């Protein structure tokens, strides 16, 4: 990496090399996450929240990416107000139907959307007991 960086003339080129190296390290992890049957979608965004890799439709990925970017920024600011030496590692948002996990990185964010575990367990429990009626 040092040899390539020395040959580059532009700081944007250096950023591209660093980002590509990070992306190559993360890509096998993202592939493994996508294989999980509970995962509905994975979105990798640049640092501005624009999708660069996704298995979700582009409009949805863009909406999630920008929304999670804003939410992540607010969360990071709040964490810094509580403890200036702390930082957000994973932001997890859980609703009745879906869980969204955001893993921030200096150059990009990874957003994973999966079925909410609580709703799956409840549905499986009701199905096993033969109770398919909704409350």
What does this structure look like?
The chain has 135 residues and is an alpha+beta fold. It is built from four helices and five strands; from the N terminus they run ααββαβββα. It has helices spanning 2-7, 11-35, 58-82, 117-128, and strands at residues 39-46, 51-54, 91-94, 98-104, 108-115. It has a five-stranded antiparallel β-sheet, sandwiched between helices. Strand 1 (39-46) and strand 2 (51-54) form a beta hairpin. The protein is globular. The N and C termini lie far apart (59 Å). Mean pLDDT is 76; it is low at 1-9.
What key attributes describe this structure?
5-stranded antiparallel sheet; globular; 135 residues
Fold topology:
Layout: H1 2-7, H2 11-35, E1 39-46, E2 51-54, H3 58-82, E3 91-94, E4 98-104, E5 108-115, H4 117-128
Antiparallel strand pairs: 1-2, 1-5, 3-4, 4-5
Estimate the global geometry from the Cα principal axes.
globular
Computed over alpha carbons, the radius of gyration is: 19 Å
The portion of residues assigned to helices is 40-55%
What is the beta-strand fraction? 15-25%
User: Roughly how many Å apart are the termini?
Assistant: 59 Å
- Strand runs, count: 5
How confident is the prediction overall: mean pLDDT?
Answer: 76
The count of helical stretches stands at: 4
What string, H for helix and E for strand, traces the elements in order? HHEEHEEEH
Biggest β-sheet description:
5 strands, antiparallel
Low-confidence stretches: 1-9
């Amino acid at each position: 990496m040092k040899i390539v960086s020395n040959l580059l003339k532009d700081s944007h080129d250096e950023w591209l090399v660093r980002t590509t190296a990070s992306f190559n390290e993360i890509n096998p992890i993202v592939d493994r996450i996508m294989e999980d049957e509970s995962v509905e979608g994975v979105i990798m965004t640049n640092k501005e929240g624009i999708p660069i890799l996704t298995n979700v439709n582009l409009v949805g990925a863009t909406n999630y990416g920008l929304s999670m970017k804003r939410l992540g920024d607010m969360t990071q600011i709040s964490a810094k107000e509580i403890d200036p030496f702390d930082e957000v590692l994973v932001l997890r948002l859980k609703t009745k139907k879906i869980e969204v996990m955001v893993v921030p990185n200096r150059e990009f964010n990874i957003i994973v959307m999966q079925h909410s575990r609580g709703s799956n367990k409840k549905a499986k429990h009701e199905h096993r007991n033969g109770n398919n009626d909704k409350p």
